[in-house]
Specification:
alpha/beta; TIM Barrel; nine-stranded mixed sheet; Arc Repressor Mutant, subunit A; three-stranded antiparallel sheet; 17 strands; 2 domains; 379 residues; single chain; 16 helices
Length: 379
């Protein structure tokens, strides 16, 4: 059984005002102790029937800011994975990085450790917007980090970019896309800013100190993204993700295709497709490390996924991808036809929101514009 492995490193230099991820700012992060805990948790997982004979197809070091850790620590983590499981020869191994935390030597160290794909949280190249977003880097630093990664030998580089930022113009957004393409990146994740409850931005908007982008502006940016990147050889393969041919993020496709993945680290989530089981770890890094040290794991919540929920998740996750859902795959997994379980698909087809054939269901361009509302009907 093949599975994807997610490794969460939760520490950051600062907390961005829009971020609701499990990230923590501390005066000094306990790198050695945290790596010890990750390795111990990996050992514990390897004894489970679900993972014992598994083969790792992708690895993703996410955060937080994994690039705060040294190449030596990353090499130790990846070496422990290799000593524990078989890994596909063509495995995709990604590390997330803040451009302000790396230089050429560190990037070269990550490459030597076994990382072959890097994802930079750039968000923008505009210094004013970066200041508003609370980023620790400026546009020049971001560009230099990407150039350094390519120069030391990374040939698969993603940039996370953000649009619909308060005060951002369509022209500024197109400029960010242009710089990302001109730098030679192979993948771009283009996300609209959302105001998540519990974040600084959410509180500021409620107090009237920050305003969301106008809907017309956001729609214009959305359309610019597809047109601009499409004209430059990037294929849209998921609602927010674009890649050059052959450069889709295989790890994220694991999630969108509802396939099996193991998550280790503070707050990490796991999903066993065959067991219809999902669980997650203790969120707090200190509690996570203490739990792993005392009992080998930090699992705090387990959920058995009933068939109706599993079917709904498979549909709305699959519809995020431009290839859509294969009807025969749905039938194979769940033993029933897609249109039998979800008769609303016919109405959505008639409204021009879905393409429904005997072979697949996928969102139309119009459907992608209201995708959240469509997904809600399957939950």
């Amino acid at each position: 059984m093949e599975f994807s492995l997610y490794i969460h490193i939760p520490y950051c230099d600062s907390k961005c005002p829009y971020c609701d991820f499990n990230s923590h700012v501390v005066p000094r992060w306990p790198e050695q102790r945290y790596v010890d805990a990750l390795c111990r948790e990996l050992d514990h997982c390897s004894q489970s029937d679900l993972w014992r004979d598994g083969i790792v197809r992708t690895i993703f070091l996410g955060g937080g800011t994994p690039s705060l850790f040294s190449p030596k620590s990353i090499a130790r983590i990846l070496g422990h994975v290799r000593a524990t499981w078989d890994i596909r020869a063509d495995a995709e191994v990604t590390i997330e990085s803040n451009p302000g935390t790396v230089d050429g030597a560190k990037l070269q160290g990550f490459l030597a450790a076994g990382v072959n794909r890097i994802s930079f949280g750039v968000q923008s190249f505009d210094d004013g917007l970066l200041g508003l977003l609370g980023r620790i880097h400026d546009g020049r630093t971001a560009a230099d980090a990407v150039s350094s990664a390519l120069r030391v030998g990374f040939d698969d580089v993603n940039l996370d970019l953000m649009f619909a930022v308060p005060g951002q113009t369509v022209e500024q957004w197109e400029s960010d896309l242009r710089q990302a393409v001109d730098l030679g990146t192979t993948h771009i994740s283009a996300y609209n800013l959302t105001f998540e409850e519990g974040t600084v931005f959410y509180a500021q908007r409620r107090k009237g100190k920050l305003r969301s982008a106008e809907e017309d502006t956001e729609i214009a940016m959305y359309e610019v993204t597809e047109n601009f990147l499409g004209a430059r050889g990037f294929e849209r393969y998921e609602i927010s993700n674009y890649a050059r041919p052959g450069r889709m993020c295989r790890h994220n496709l694991t999630y969108w295709r509802a396939q099996t993945y193991l998550g280790v680290g503070a707050g990490a989530h796991s999903f066993g497709q065959s067991a219809a089981l999902r669980w997650h770890n203790e969120l707090g890094p200190e509690k996570y490390m203490a739990d792993v040290e005392s009992r080998g794991h930090a699992r705090v919540r387990e959920e058995q996924i009933e068939p109706p929920q599993a079917r709904g998740e498979f549909v709305f996750l699959g519809l995020r991808c431009c290839e859509g859902i294969a009807t025969d795959e749905f039938r194979r997994r769940f033993g029933v036809d897609l249109d039998e379980v979800y008769p609303q698909g016919a109405a959505m087809r008639d409204q021009g929101l879905l393409e429904c054939t005997e072979d697949y269901w996928r969102l139309t361009k119009r459907g992608r514009m209201v995708s959240d509302a469509i997904f809600a009907t399957f939950v």
